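G., before I forget:
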Amino acid sequence: KAGVTQTPRYLIKTRGQQVTLSCSPISGHRSVSWYQQTPGQGLQFLFEYFSETQRNKGNFPGRFSGRQFSNSRSEMNVSTLELGDSALYLCASSLEGGGNTIYFGEGSWLTVV
Amino acid sequence: AQRVTQPEKLLSVFKGAPVELKCNYSYSGSPELFWYVQYSRQRLQLLLRHISRESIKGFTADLNKGETSFHLKKPFAQEEDSAMYYCALKGAGEYGNKLVFGAGTILRVKS
């Protein structure tokens, strides 16, 4: 079956703009998480959605937001982009329940200039 | 606070040599520990988890609660093992699927 799919794969934005990234989880997975990966900070948890509700949130400013749709697809939005937001944004999906594997997408490379 | 420490940024070994990638964690309860691997130009993928107690691609990892460690080991390194390895923690019984990652260790296997 298809893996976690993220779009767009690459994008360049200007400081002050906003960006929306999309994630389609593996079919049947209702938990979707987002991570930011940078050379300096590594992999950091942004937030997790389950059944259209945010149930976990990392330590990121309010400029970072997300949502999940009834079909479990998710989007994350970053407003008022800063240079430091340049990163690889990873989406991950999982079945509900402990012990289930968390699968990652290939990521969306965001460059802010 | 949940924390995962991987002390080595880079580990370089010769083919056929033993490999040990170190991982220490800080967590007040009972964690679930994982090793994820990212090969060049590929997505992050699960290598193994402590609850499975299995060997994947010759790699094993044992959870040592006394030392709060989950080191990844392989007796004989192969060139195809070259990749970035991340140790990750999830609070057992915690609501949701939040992973806390270490900084990662690049494993370079030389021929």
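The two ends of chain A are 37 Å apart (CA to CA). Residues 40 and 87 of chain A are 10 Å apart (CA to CA).

More on Monday.
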